[in-house]
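Supplementary Methods S3. Input chains for the assembly prediction are listed below.
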Amino acid sequence: MAKLTRRDFTKLSAAGIASATLSSGQADAASGSPAALASKISRGVDLPPAKGHRVVVIGGGWSGLTIAKYLKIHGPDLDVVLVERRSVFISHPISGLWLAGMVNLDAISFSYLDAADVNGYAYLNASLIDVDRESRKIYTDQGWLAYDDLVLTPGVDYNYASLGVEDPYHEQLLKTRYPAGFVSASEHISLKNKVQNFQGGLFVLTAPPGIYRCSATPYERACLIASVFKKTNIKGKIVLIDSREEPAVSAEGFLSAFDELYGDTIEYMTSTVIRSVDPETRTIVTDFDNIVFDDASIYPRIRGARLLEHLGLADPKSAQMEAAIDHFTYNAGGDKHVYAAGDCRPMPFSKSGGTARSEGVYLAKLIAARAMGKEIPWESPHTVCFSMVNTEPREAIMVNGKYQFDKASSQWGHFENFAINERDEAKGEKALEWAEEHYRDMFG
Ligand SMILES: Cc1cc2nc3c(=O)[nH]c(=O)nc-3n(C[C@H](O)[C@H](O)[C@H](O)COP(=O)(O)OP(=O)(O)OC[C@H]3O[C@@H](n4cnc5c(N)ncnc54)[C@H](O)[C@@H]3O)c2cc1C
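Predicted structure tokens for the full assembly:
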């Protein structure tokens, strides 16, 4: 494995300074000086002028792709632009099956151009830098663009300080060598390479505290990596470290899979809080022990995308720096022309693709209705999640749930909730059907 040294890190830091210049520009702009950016980014993006009410959606993940599509369904006259920094969509859901060699990369890779063409909106391959909410303009690395309504769906970032990692060099090493595999496709590729090339020993996975992206995945991933070790005769042990007493979701289904299918490969370490991680000595310090690992994929606590903070739209009271929104209309920062949705939201909804999609359908309907001067009642998102726990045969478990708000206690609760913890092949097939149905919906 190529080694990253402190000298290399100095070079990285130099690159960091360039982006930090941008960040401080963003921060300035958030505090009221987008004029500074306007003087630098004076050209408009290469798009035809708006044909009517323009809704700009930032972020082409499960949330943004759904919102852009359903805006055109509920408001065919809306001029919709999806701004996404990636040029290819690689899906997180089903990436675990790719990791385990059950599907090809093609099965989870899609073109933003196809999505835009089939669904009748414009795709702008650009990164959002700042927003001037007064003049309703966004600034991207490709120029500026005016909006009537703006929807932010930038997803999440990691919080490495939650692992007791404060040294920027260590943070960079952790991100590079032991990526969590919950935000970018490059992380998935590195993780797959790690699993395929593992020479044996201790492979550590972690499940973060708080509400994290896809609550079933750390447990599903342990099963899928264990199945690869079994299939390829790798003499490896997986230690899954969790601060909880049992898996965050589908506990019974995962515990029986660990026990019955991977008893000699997976050690599930419960009620274990990580105090610090040293990527140089490959040591995790917990309340009880020092764990020295051979390889790892370390998942820190997540937080709302940092972009929201730069824009002054993160809630400082939120432990995970999620978006400051009205829970029913998704309006951000009290601005009736700005919305935020998807995994960056603060509500205790599952941070999952299916949830982001169903929520996005409602939000698109709301924005389209408002453009016509109407309001619509709130609709709960719907969470459906299949987890593949066995690969030969392909067997899965699943959970389902909706959400309701109790005004008396000001708390969110669940309804129509159920889990099916008995793994079987029928659910294994449904896991793939669920994904294909969603890909068809987003990409036509
Ligand atoms: C391994 C894994 C497995 C999963 N499995 C499942 C599953 O089986 N079922 C399920 O329902 N969910 C699953 N999930 C969760 C699901 O992927 C997320 O909940 C979902 O992606 C959230 O959608 P989002 O649009 O909010 O965020 P994202 O999908 O992260 O999209 C955010 C987008 O915003 C873009 N962006 C950010 N900043 C900018 C900027 N400044 N300018 C332009 N673009 C920007 C990013 O490039 C990204 O494309 C899984 C997640 C992982 C990691």
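Residues 58-64, 83-86, 92-93, 95-96, 127-128, 153-155, 181-182, 213-214, 217, 305, 307, 342-343, 351-354, 356, 385 surround flavin-adenine dinucleotide (CB under 6 Å). The CA atoms of residues 180 and 299 lie 4 Å apart.
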